[in-house]
Automatic annotation (TrEMBL):
<dbReference type="GO" id="GO:0016887">
    <property type="term" value="F:ATP hydrolysis activity"/>
</dbReference>
<dbReference type="InterPro" id="IPR003439">
    <property type="entry name" value="ABC_transporter-like_ATP-bd"/>
</dbReference>
<dbReference type="InterPro" id="IPR017871">
    <property type="entry name" value="ABC_transporter-like_CS"/>
</dbReference>
<dbReference type="GO" id="GO:0005524">
    <property type="term" value="F:ATP binding"/>
</dbReference>
<dbReference type="InterPro" id="IPR027417">
    <property type="entry name" value="P-loop_NTPase"/>
</dbReference>
<keyword id="KW-0813">Transport</keyword>
<dbReference type="Pfam" id="PF00005">
    <property type="entry name" value="ABC_tran"/>
</dbReference>
<keyword id="KW-0067">ATP-binding</keyword>
<protein>
    <submittedName>
        <fullName>Phospholipid/cholesterol/gamma-HCH transport system ATP-binding protein</fullName>
    </submittedName>
</protein>
<keyword id="KW-0547">Nucleotide-binding</keyword>
<feature type="domain" description="ABC transporter">
    <location>
        <begin position="5"/>
        <end position="241"/>
    </location>
</feature>
<dbReference type="InterPro" id="IPR003593">
    <property type="entry name" value="AAA+_ATPase"/>
</dbReference>
<feature type="region of interest" description="Disordered">
    <location>
        <begin position="328"/>
        <end position="361"/>
    </location>
</feature>
Amino acid sequence: MGVEIRVEGLTKSFGSQVIWQDVSLTLPAGEVSVLLGPSGTGKSVFLKSLVGLLKPERGNIWIGDRNLPYLPEGQLYETRKLFGVLFQDGALFGSMNLFDNIAFPLREHTKKSESEIKRIVMEKMEMVGLLGAEKKLPGEISGGMKKRAGLARALVLDPEILLVDEPDSGLDPVRTAYLNQLIIDLNAQIDATFLIVTHDINTARTVPDNIGLLFRRELVMFGPREMLLSSEEPVVRQFLNARKQGPIGMSEEKDVSELEAEAKAGIDPGRLPPIPPQLLTSDGRIRKAQSPPGAWLRAHGIQPPPGSFIDELGRNWLEEWPRYVAAGNNHVGAPAGPSQSPPPGPQFSQGSKGGPPPRRH
């Protein structure tokens, strides 16, 4: 079962350069969260701070009742065992085969017998679809297989928190889609708390339960997926639409004169794209953290962009969800009451437009 992470007023600098400041958010236990942001906004630095590899100048990182930045070395070492980390390139040892790479944390941090290590390694390799590749070297496999091997290694100590840094880095869209599906399936199976750093808009729009956006050394927004995907915040709209018009520039942020010129020219920053249905597990189970489509929007009286919650087969999941649950897809991992009526609040249709912007959190 995952654990909650509470970040309060976190600030990180390198010399005189402030990377981000006063970042506060809560990663709910057992849920999948994504952190977005333009290049150079310190997303990977944030992951390293969460695991205690970098110490912030100010702020708290509460993991249960332990405040990570202020732990003595011994307690920090023990707390890190709660984490599994998938690095951008997999970070595999080139001279070791996949079995030994995945077994490495068990041999380093436990006193398990080789027979027990073999059982665990083979179990994790099966989870990520790598059975039969145990003897291959990292140089003999594809980028997607390296990612899956790195993920298996991150899982061998049964972490309660899994940090995933740019899982789509170096992968084509098809293999990124497979990896996204694997993340959703793993979350349903092990209930760990996931935090994914990514630039991939499709991943951010379809995978997580929560999304955050870093920009201008601050956390612009963090909250449920539907909150951010329906936001009228200019930087959110620009990032989700991948447009040049808006606060984000080539270096990171545009200066005042550029923004004023865009405003005078009346350039439309683009409508928010439709909100897609959230990715379901391969076996149809409903994850504990998964909410019915549109539940957050209804509860806050917000209309989604036209065309939202319609999948590639043309199914409208606002209508499909009750049938999906009634058909018996609420087995292992299902929330307490997914088949109950939607949360109170105004109803909406696919053709409706507009609606007030969500509150900042």
